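Reopening this ticket.

The earlier resolution said the output was attached, but the attachment link was broken on my side. Pasting everything inline this time so it's all in one place.
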Amino acid sequence: MSEDAEYRVVVHSREERLISLQIDNSRLSFTVTLRGDKWLIHGPGGQIELIELPRFPERDPGGVSGGLTAPMPGKVIATCVSVGDQIEAGKLLLILEAMKMEHRITAPADGVVSELRVQEGDQVANGELLIVLSETEES
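Inline output:
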């Protein structure tokens, strides 16, 4: 195996320090030492290090800096602010309909609406920028 190559690895079984892996199309047995998210694998062909990725990566709750993004694909059914409006944290900004449910998008902090990128009736994609907020001078 090449040192810089990437492989698809499936864990078939693991007992204490022994592990059976399928690496690409080959099934092999190794001894393993687990340290945090790193698996140190020792076998007849040498040693490799695997890094375990989270099953569900964490989302950045803030989205785009200074803006709010759509948490899922949907339809904008109401906008409750206009460009130039001063808003307080928690104020309802818009309502998004997704999966037959209404999702309220609220302000995470005090600020001023500097851009409203959507209007009622717009279809939006997951992660699409909806509103850009600017900080007020007091904050």
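Reporter confirms the inline version is readable. The chain has no helices and 13 strands. The longest strand covers residues 26-35.
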